């Protein structure tokens, strides 16, 4: 439930067919109402960059992913300054809104917990 990206009930909802049936239409509606796709952004573009784990995850992106992210951010900032949404044909379709940064953030969090474990490991002499 609690992960490096915050509180989430998504795994429990996905595991239950009944809950998925109830929540999937609501989640699609809510995602559309958030409006970030109207500015050409992906969900992971909305993560707070000031967090250390996100900074390290951003450093692990490929050059193409970094360029695409920068382009999406610049284009959305320009649209926001002009107070206009992108033309409908430039909106990000649901099929392209994939979590490209989440695996890297989870990997960084796993490395941090492993590092904390090894840093606090105490070695005792056998008798």
TrEMBL record:
Membrane topology reported for the UniProt record: Peripheral membrane protein
InterPro entries: QCR7, QCR7_sf
Gene Ontology, cellular component aspect: mitochondrial inner membrane; respiratory chain complex III
Keyword tags: Electron transport, Membrane, Mitochondrion, Mitochondrion inner membrane, Respiratory chain, Transport
Domain of life assignment: Eukaryota
Subcellular location: Mitochondrion inner membrane
Listed GO biological process terms: mitochondrial electron transport, ubiquinol to cytochrome c
Pfam families according to UniProt: UCR_14kD
Family: Belongs to the UQCRB/QCR7 family.
Entry function: Component of the ubiquinol-cytochrome c oxidoreductase, a multisubunit transmembrane complex that is part of the mitochondrial electron transport chain which drives oxidative phosphorylation.
Protein name: Cytochrome b-c1 complex subunit 7
Native source species: Cylindrobasidium torrendii FP15055 ss-10
